[in-house]
Each structure stands twice: as C-alpha cells, then as structure tokens.
Design a protein that fits this description.
By secondary structure, the protein is an alpha/beta fold. It is 34% helix and 16% strand. Among the domains are: 219 residues, Crotonobetainyl-coa:carnitine coa-transferase, domain 1 (Rossmann fold, 3-Layer(aba) Sandwich), CATH 3.40.50.10540; 58 residues, no CATH class.
Length: 722
C-alpha cells in the first residue's frame, strides 16, 4: 500500500459509467459515482421532450466533473460511437419511462457491462408502471406533499427535487452493490429504482400512526412522535427547537427555571407530550417569544438540545461549516460564460476523498475520447441467472445510533444480506419508546430497524468495553450517528478503532461534520433542514418557513451514508485498507438545494387547488377561462374537477393522504409494506427495500425484538467468547 497516494486515491477505479437518461435522478446518480472516482460520460442531444425539469435544466450542476458526448440522431458515425460507448461501459444509467429509445438500444446490444440501472417514476409493475411523471406529481401521489405544511392550510410543495435526488442516491448504492455481486458471481444485474417507492417509503415517520389504526395528518414543523419540536417566534426572528427525549425535555425545563414541569403528569413521557402538544407549544413559545434568537440559541445549546436558525441561500453560502469542507465550488459555465456554483464532494474519508468537479464540459467536448473507446469483447450473457447470495451476504455490520440516519444504513445493509448487529446502551435506542406502541415497542423504531439483531453493550463498564472491542475486531463496517467525540470518551476514538481493525469501514454521521466548529452541537432533522436552506425553499405563501413533512435531512444523510460505506468497502476489497468516513448532515441537506443556487427558472409550474373533498396538484395555465375555473375549484370533488381540467389540456393529479397512498393499488402492487416476525413470533409491519435487482429477490424479512434479545446468539455467531 505504500505506493498509493492515500489522500488522493479515489474510492472506485477503472469504472466507465454512461449516463443516457435525462431525469435529475440519473444526473444525481452519475455525479455521486463521478465523485467516487468513476469516469462518467453524459450523452447529450437526444432527450425526450417532457413537461418537467430534467438534469439539462440544471446542466451546470449535473454535467460538472463529467464528460460530454453529443449524439446526433441522423449521423451514422454517432450511432457507431454510441454503440461502442455502450459496449465499453461498466455501468449504464437511463430512464426508460421518458426515453424508451435509449432503453431499447441498451437491450438490443450484447455487451459485457455488469450493471444496467433504470430510474423511472413508478418502476415496471403496478397500474402506474412506465408513466413519465414528474417529481412534484410523485410527491402528490405518494403522500409526501400532503405531509408538508400546516394542518389548517393547503399542502406546500417541496421546491427542490427531493424525490429525484433520493432516487439518484439509492441508484448509486444499488449500482455499487450490484458491482460487488457481479465481481463475486459474474452475474450481470439490471437494477430498478422507482421514484414512487422511494417517495412513499420516505413517509416512515407518519406511517406508524396509519399502521396503528390512525389517520396521519400534516403537522407543520412539529414531529408526529416527539415534543417540543417546532419553529418558534423569538422577539427578532425564528428559532428551531427539537427536544425529543425525556432527558432533553428535562434540560429545557431547567434552562427556563421550570423544573416542576418535568414531573407534571401531562408531560412525563413522549406520548404524554405529543398528546398535549398544543399546551407544550404554548409554554415553550411563551418562553421563547420574550428573548432574541441569539439568546434562545445560547440557552438551548447550553442545555445540549438541538436548535438552530433558518438559513436563506445567502446564509448557506457563507456558512463556516460548509466552508471547512470546501463544499461550494466556483466554475465557469461554458454555455452562459458566467461563473456558477456547483457542489463540492460529499465524501470525506481518512484514506480517500471524493473528487470535486474541476470543470463543466462544453457540449460534445469529449467526442474524441468517445471515438477512441474500444468496446469490451462481446460475449453472451445470461441475464436470467439467479444468485443464491445477496450482495452483502459476507459482511458483518455494527450499528450504534439513534433515530434515523445510522439505523437507515443498517436497515438497508440488512436487506442486502449483511449480518447487522444493533449495539444499544442499557437505555436502548432513544426512539424505542416513541408512540404509537405495540407490546411496549414503538412502530417507528420497529420500521427503522428491520433485519437486525440487538445486543446491549455498556461502554461505561470494563466488560462492555471488552465486548465492544471484540465486536469491532470482527466487523467489516461500523456505523454510528453519535455526537462527535462520544466514543473517544470511552477509549474508542478513530485511531483506536483503526488499530483494533485496520480493515474496518467506519462511517460517522454528525450534524455538521467532525472537522466543523459545530462538531459537538446536537443536530436533528428539523434543525438541519433549517440550516441547510431546505426550509427557506419550502416557505408558505405568507413566507413562513416549513420543513418537508418527511424527514428529508435525516433520510438524505442515511442514504448518502449508505453510498459512503459501499464506496469505502469497494476500496477496502481492492486494497485491503479500511477507513473512517466523515459525513455531514448539513452538507447532505445543502446538496439537495443545488437546483436553486444559480437561480434557474423552473420550466414547469404547478399550483395546488382545493376541491370540495381534497386537493389537486395541477399544471399552471395563463388562460382566463382556466383561471376562472380554478377559482371555483372548491365547488367540485377532486375527480370531477380533474376531468374538467383535462378537457382544457391541464394535467392534474390527486394529492393523496398518507392513508390513501398506503392503500393505493401502486403501493400494494409494489409490496412497499410487508410483514415479518421477531424472535418471539410477534408480527410487525415492515418497509420494503427500494433497490430491486434482476438476479436476487431482496425481501425485508425480520422485525427487531426486545432490547438485547439477540445478545447471546450474536456473540456465538461472531465467535466471541466471554
């Protein structure tokens, strides 16, 4: 390993990726793979005409760091070049719902590329299969849109392509997993990513209410299972406060000299506080209204409770934590001739670092590169082979964390076949007790921790430290979302972990990154949405900032953590060296806002209209006749009004509630909610894995049990003798 320049070695090498699709998700996936070290060639010039924004609307972002080849349809030379390009590829990414001609071309060519990834709106099954819907329309149908905004007002569109971005991240993870499977089995993979699946599964924080018999509603900036958790008015602005646990509530009360509220029977448990959330907000809001935003931040930070301001984009661009990681890159756009902002790398490892874009290519800048490519030797591949092993079947994973980010990584690795052990303190994951419950265990906790075993390890004891050391020595991957420095207090800093296991891939997810001045500040999804510019872009018409109803910052942090782990694992498999991955939730959230950085005007306009029995998302029209009809929308039920709009060539989709989305034919056909039992035989609802592979059936199978219930089996399976 001494011949490698570790600080500049990419995570993946010798991988040619061809981007054929126009969806933002395709561009996002390609950008992630380019950061990890792949050579990515974007095919320009033959995009389908659609009514919504594509990656080419934001070309400066989604072409940065890639190569450009312009394909001219009536050129024989270009057909040969494109054919050779596809045959030379290791990975193909396309979107068959809006560009079936590329899909047909890929299917017609025999080649040795190991992975084809198709990112579409709805996947290949269900009544909506192959329909080319936009991000916003999928927000509407999946329940995501109805979860965003205040209950007593209309839903609010998330004004950045959240579902496209999430789909692109999952596609990158699926590609890395499929590459690993191909290298082990030589079975090629067709990967399917459906944006609807990912959108619906992102409503996980609302689904517990539905699954326990309730009817979840949008709740503004509150949390369905925790309180106090909201955007509060100070005497000079706004402040976000997220105090989810009993300990955090106690510290808030003491900070405001009201310790008697800690034992008040109305507020003792998370369930009690959620039940009395209006009273909680009145009390906390009264405290905060009398002080400045700066004072509120000072007090809550002193109490070690997650809090934060709401950043505008200008604030975001001037943020010190993001500057520490050189997150914003200034490059010249060859189309406009202007300097523009594009994202820096998301991936910061102790051995490798993601490659930031150095240039935005001119259109067709890399024609010579494409023309000189030599196709791989053609051989017949059997795409019907079934693998007996899942991609991560030989991987041992330790997960130590609470709530969403680290558990999401562990859950997906478990679905992909890894042996995932959730290491809990004697108090357990902080979201175990969150309501609603069944048999004393929370639905939210159970949904987020499928396909895992649970063991209790008390790091405050010598025996606990010994067990943890032995587990680390056996593990391939260690994931945690603890506050920076927490493990070091028990003698397990990054250097010690590496010494215990030099092959360990260790991913730590913090609010602002381990190198940030805010590294030790508590962070939750809502505060990150505020400090990543996400709430600024999801403001209501009266300019009140709103978080997305789904936990977008948490989810994106976990999704990018999964990519980080798989990228570092590929490096480890090739070079035998593990490393520590430093992932910032703020950086992950800011990455989602990149389509607004250079003030591109969205080509598609939507408006939300209220009908007599619900809401519709419809295309905007400047027609006077259409506007007159829209002004009377509340007189009609959604179905009838949709038909009236269609007659005027205005497309619309119903804005579905969480319940309606959960019970829709598309959700049922895609089997997005399944069931599995824990070791006691108790059956629980579980959430599907959004990554589909042609040669393996990825099914979520097992519900997690009582805290520590798998301890003895884990130690036995991992070969640890007490």
């Amino acid at each position: 390993m001494s011949d490698l320049n570790m600080t500049s070695t990419p995570f993946i090498r010798d991988c040619l990726v061809v981007e054929l699709g126009s969806r933002v998700a395709v561009g996002a996936c390609g950008s992630i793979l380019a950061q990890l070290g792949a050579t990515v060639v974007v095919v320009e010039g033959s995009e389908s005409i659609v009514s919504f924004d594509t990656k080419f609307t934001y070309r400066e972002s989604f072409l940065a760091g890639k190569k450009s080849f312009k394909f001219i349809e009536d050129s024989k030379e270009d057909h040969l070049y494109l054919s050779n390009l596809i045959r030379a590829a290791d990975v193909l990414i396309y979107s068959s719902d809006i560009e079936p001609h590329f899909y047909d071309l890929c299917c017609s060519l025999e080649s040795v590329y190991p992975v084809k990834c198709d990112i579409t709106g709805f996947g290949s099954s269900g009544p909506l299969a192959n329909k080319p819907y936009s991000d916003q329309a999928i927000q509407a149908l999946s329940g995501v849109l109805d979860s965003t905004g205040a209950l007593d007002d209309s839903p609010i569109l998330i004004k950045y392509p959240l579902i496209e971005f999430s789909s692109g991240i999952y596609a990158a993870s699926a590609i890395l997993a499929a590459k690993r499977l191909y290298e082990n089995s030589k079975i090629p993979q067709r990967v399917e990513i459906a944006m609807y699946d990912i959108a619906f599964l992102s409503t996980a924080s609302f689904l517990p209410a539905y699954l326990s018999g309730g009817n979840p509603k949008r709740i503004g900036n509150q949390h369905p299972s925790m309180a106090p958790w909201n955007l509060y008015t100070t005497n000079d602005g706004w402040i976000l406060l997220c105090a989810g646990s009993n300990d955090e509530w106690s510290r808030v009360c003491r900070e405001f000299n009201s310790p008697e509220l800690i034992s008040n029977k109305l507020f003792v448990t998370p369930s009690d506080r959620v039940k009395n959330i209006k009273l909680i907000d009145e009390i906390v809001g009264g405290w905060i209204r009398s002080i400045s935003s700066a004072k509120a931040l000072e007090k809550f930070s002193k109490a070690n409770v997650s809090c934060g301001p709401v950043y505008s984009l200008k604030d975001l661009f001037n943020d010190d934590s993001l500057a520490t990681y050189d997150f914003f890159q200034h490059l010249k756009d060859p189309i406009s001739g202007l300097m523009v902002l594009v994202p820096g790398t998301l991936f910061h490892g102790s051995v490798s670092k993601g490659l930031p874009a150095k240039v935005i290519p001119k259109i067709d800048q890399d024609r010579v590169f494409v023309g000189e490519l030599v196709p791989q030797k053609v051989k017949k591949l059997d795409n019907t082979q079934i693998s007996s092993l899942k991609p991560m079947a030989d991987i041992f994973v330790l997960e130590m964390g609470n709530y969403t980010t680290a558990p999401l990584i562990g859950r997906q690795l478990g679905a992909l076949g890894a042996y995932v052990v959730k290491v809990e303190s004697p108090k357990g994951d902080l979201c175990r007790p969150l309501p609603p419950h069944k048999d004393g265990q929370g639905y939210f906790f159970t949904l987020g921790n499928s396909d895992k075993s649970t063991i209790v390890v008390d790091l405050a004891t010598e025996s606990g430290k010994s067990i943890f050391s032995d587990l680390i020595k056996k593990a391939d991957i260690f994931i945690e979302n603890l506050k920076s420095g927490s493990l070091g207090k028990f003698g397990f800093d990054n250097q010690t972990l590496s010494e215990l296991n030099p092959r360990l891939v260790h991913c730590s997810i913090t609010g602002f990154g381990a190198r940030s001045k805010l590294a030790n500040i508590a962070a939750m999804d809502t505060t990150i949405q505020g400090m990543a510019g996400m709430m600024f872009l999801t403001s209501s018409d009266n300019e009140i900032p709103y978080k997305s109803g789904v936990s977008a910052a948490d989810l994106t942090g976990g999704q990018l953590g999964l990519v980080s782990v798989l990228g570092a694992l590929e490096y480890r498999d090739k070079f035998g060296v593990g490393q520590h991955m430093d992932l910032s939730m703020q950086m992950s959230g800011a990455w989602l806002t990149q389509t607004a950085w250079n003030y591109v005007t969205h080509s598609a306009k939507y408006e939300i209209v209220q009908c007599s029995n619900g809401f519709l998302l419809c295309g905007h029209s400047n027609s006077t006749k259409a506007q007159s009809l829209l002004d009377e929308s509340d007189k009609y039920p959604t179905y009838l009004f949709s038909q009236l709009l269609l007659k005027m060539n205005i497309e619309s989709v119903e804005i579905c509630s969480i319940r309606r989305a959960a019970e829709s034919e598309q959700t049922l056909a895609r089997k997005l909610i399944s069931h599995g039992k824990n070791m006691k035989g108790v059956e629980w609802p579980l959430l599907a894995c959004p990554m589909k592979f042609s040669s393996i059936n990825i099914e979520v199978e097992r519900a997690i049990g009582d805290i520590g219930s798998d301890g003895e089996k884990v130690l036995r399976d991992w070969g640890i003798v007490l």
